[in-house]
């Protein structure tokens, strides 16, 4: 146990140091100048402080007030040594954070008795602090493990959905990365951007509830079939929303809202404007961009330039104008992701698409590479 002793009288300081040395497991830290104490902080480590009241430059109250400015010393027990019995002095010391007083001349027996009590108190405080730190580390570890499980669940569910429609596998990964880039350009916090990247690949999870005859149809859907297809939004939300995981709840929000339109003409609930969750507005853009720029059995791929123009034209009608602005800002990052995740030709042979079919205009390509 390290006991800080501060007294400008070197005889008194030596005397108190000898008394501390007689206490089992205690080490005195001697300072005859309060300025030296402050100079040594915050590297100085002590468990208990014993400070003389009457000193030059800083008196005891002033010194303790300065010490308390450092977070690491705020709960350290401090005793004042004073020959002054004035209640105003004692109140000032108590207000500064002192917990006890010793009156000069200091009685060796009284000093050692009080130090033993304070050593027991400081020891209990240190053990409590160690336990609190242990608990903090354990909670942090548990939260990390829980988060890893949540991410694994999302990954497994996304893979499960891709078994029904193989085209969704790469699509969902790209939508997650595009959504993260747009969210970051929008100015959202780092944690939320990461959450959107993790949750957005599940935007189409509800397609597992759509009959294959509709989901895998090559031609144009009938009005009734399109109404059936629209149900994937509410089905996806129903699959995810009862989870206690905030990440899966975000995924449910995205699944429900990513086909809503800024003008209220979307589905399933025809919600408009800012009433659409921001996560859904962002993923709607990412989903639309990827759907247009990749070839499918029922359509050829659009060029990036065509797609960007299409999205900009629909700012304020289909898409949130602020999200479109963030999308434009994020285009270099989106292009980089696009180049890194072009679908392998063998996986899209039915669509007669090769990597060279993806047209990336030069003004974006330079920044993407």
Automatic annotation (TrEMBL):
UniProt xrefs under SMART domains: HDc, REC
What Gene3D superfamilies does UniProt report for this protein, alphabetically?
3.40.50.2300, Hypothetical protein af1432
Q: Which GO terms describe its biological process?
A: phosphorelay signal transduction system
Ranges for the Response regulatory domain?
A: 2-119
Q: Which UniProt keywords apply?
A: Phosphoprotein
Per the record, residues carrying 4-aspartylphosphate are: 52
Q: Cross-referenced CDD domains, in alphabetical order?
A: HDc
Q: Which residues form the HD-GYP domain?
A: 146-343
Which GO terms of the molecular function aspect are on file? Answer: phosphoric diester hydrolase activity
PANTHER family the UniProt entry points to: CYCLIC DI-GMP PHOSPHODIESTERASE TM_0186, CYCLIC DI-GMP PHOSPHODIESTERASE TM_0186-RELATED
Its name, as the record gives it, is Putative two-component system response regulator
Q: Which organism is it from?
A: Shinella granuli
């Amino acid at each position: 146990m390290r006991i800080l002793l501060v007294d400008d009288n070197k005889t008194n300081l030596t005397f108190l140091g000898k008394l501390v040395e007689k206490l089992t497991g205690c080490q005195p830290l001697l300072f005859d100048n309060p300025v030296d104490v402050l100079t040594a902080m915050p590297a100085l480590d002590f468990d208990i402080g014993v400070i003389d009241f009457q000193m030059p430059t800083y008196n005891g109250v002033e010194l303790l007030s300065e010490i308390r400015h450092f977070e690491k010393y705020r709960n350290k027990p401090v005793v004042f040594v004073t020959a002054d019995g004035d209640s105003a002095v004692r109140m000032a010391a108590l207000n500064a954070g002192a917990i006890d007083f010793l009156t000069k001349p200091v009685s060796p027996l009284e000093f050692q008795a009080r130090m033993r009590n304070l050593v027991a108190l400081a020891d209990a405080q240190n053990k409590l602090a160690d336990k609190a730190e242990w608990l903090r580390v354990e909670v942090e570890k548990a939260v990390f493990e829980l988060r890893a499980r949540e991410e694994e669940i999302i990954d497994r569910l996304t893979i499960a959905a891709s078994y029904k429609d193989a085209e969704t596998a790469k699509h969902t990964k790209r939508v997650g990365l595009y959504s993260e880039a747009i969210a970051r350009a929008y100015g959202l916090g780092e944690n939320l951007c990461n959450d959107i990247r993790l949750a957005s690949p599940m935007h189409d999870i509800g397609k597992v509830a759509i009959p294959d005859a509709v989901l895998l149809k090559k031609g144009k859907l009938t009005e009734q079939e399109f109404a059936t297809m629209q149900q994937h939004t509410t089905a996806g939300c129903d699959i995810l929303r009862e989870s206690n995981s905030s990440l899966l709840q975000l995924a449910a929000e995205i699944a429900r809202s990513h086909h809503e339109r800024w003008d209220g003409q979307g589905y399933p609930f025809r919600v408009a404007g800012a009433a659409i969750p921001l996560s859904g507005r962002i993923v709607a853009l990412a989903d639309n961009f990827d759907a247009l720029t990749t070839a499918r059995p029922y359509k050829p791929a659009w060029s990036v330039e065509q797609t960007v123009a299409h999205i900009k034209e629909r700012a304020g009608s289909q898409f949130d104008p602020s999200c479109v602005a963030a999308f434009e800002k994020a285009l270099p990052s989106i292009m980089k992701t696009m180049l890194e995740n072009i679908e392998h030709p063998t996986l899209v042979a039915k669509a007669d698409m090769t990597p060279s079919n993806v047209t990336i205009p030069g003004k974006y390509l330079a920044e993407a590479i």
